[in-house]
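Collaborator request, handled under Task 6.
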Amino acid sequence: MRKTPLTFAGPRPALIALAAAALLSGCSLVPLYERPAAPVATAWPTLGPAQDAGAGTAPAAALPWQAFVGPGPLQEVLGLALQGNRDLRLAALAIEQARAQYQIRAADQLPTVNAAATGNRQPKTDGSGAITSAYTVGLALAAWEIDFFGRIASLKEAALAQYLATEEARKAVQTSLVAAVASTWLSLQTSEELLALAQRTLATREDSLRLARLRLDQGVASALELSQAESLAAAARASVAQQQRQRALDANALTLLVGQPLPAALLAAAAGGSALALPELPAGLPSDLLTARPDIRQAEQQLIAANANIGAARAAFFPRIALTASAGTASSSLSGLFESGSWGWTLAPQAVLPIFDAGRNQAGLDSAQAGRAIAVAQYEKAIQTAFREVADALAGRATLAAQVQALQAQTGAEAQRVRLAELRLRNGVASSLEVLDAQRALFAVQQALAQTQLAQQQNRVLLFKALGGGWTPADAASASSSPAIPAAPAAPAAS
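Structure tokens returned to the collaborator:
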């Protein structure tokens, strides 16, 4: 039996070439990514008591900000800030831009098919004066690069990492915003407390000034006592003005963070609200920051993008293969475009191998490698900054509580001193200078106590932020309504 050789007609060779290209396009020159070792100690520095306070509380990264601040007006203010803050809005828009850039890179892997129609009329070169015409209509595939060596795939991987980095950047902005709003709210409450204290002190010192004038008129006090009373009353008036200004500045800062004017009811709640009962948080291990803090995850995604750019730079040294194809109808007249026999197709592959480029490709590779080194340094700096922020907050937690207790004891002692001085004055065994000095000391320690209590509360907010708190999965749904891009696989840890 005679065997007939197999033959291919029509566009089948082109289909086989495309299939082979698809199989070979899995080649990649991207270096194997390894997460750099964390350049920090394996344990937190200790100061004072053990740093395991809040051991029974959920980690900051797993604690929603709503649970951290608790129900109340501050939670309402934070809800308004997450809706209106412009920095958070810019971060969300940056995600949209990065998503579009990723989709552009992903589209480069697929051919672009266009509907094309061309017409050409020109005189013949034989001197006859006749005009030749050529018309074509059909589908055209223009210079589709077949990604044999993974150049486009590397650029796509870099774009995906940049997209994921912008998502982490938005989370970092939100954690900073939650901490800033909470700290400013606490500062506003303390300003209200200090203003009320200054107003009460001013009223007391004005009473003492009137008494000093009366005693001077009766000849039982000296001009020195009157001058001391006048000085302390003026100092109290200055303190009232200072606290009024500070309260206005705190309110303005809170309005900027929220991104819209605050309702009067919420501002009034800051003046009459009770102190927040912020929970103590467990510090965990320094290695937990690598997955808890969004700014560290952002730096790592940027490192992954820089690593992928090296693959694209390496691929530039290899041949670049492009395919141009078209299929349609051609005729010398418009009326014959769609007649029988006018249909056809063209296939034009092209391979370009760089021979001399004056060092452009090598410079591109050097730039990509330097970019990865920069990204490594930025990643390590992000870890070190996070470690320092947590260590600072832990140092504050270890010492601020003792400082508050000491100031509370000093406040009680100064209050007792004022009562005894007033009793001695009424019994005629002390001068008014002793009372005025005791009142001055009590006012100073009361101010120091309020400011230290503020520092203690703000330190808890700082620790919450430093440990990666302030972002919850529920916030991701409201961050953007656009369809999400599948996340890249988790990066392997360094061996």
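The cover message to the collaborator said: "Residues 111-146+319-352 form a domain with the Outer membrane efflux proteins (OEP) fold (CATH 2.20.200.10). The chain has twelve helices and four strands. Please let us know whether this matches your experimental observations."
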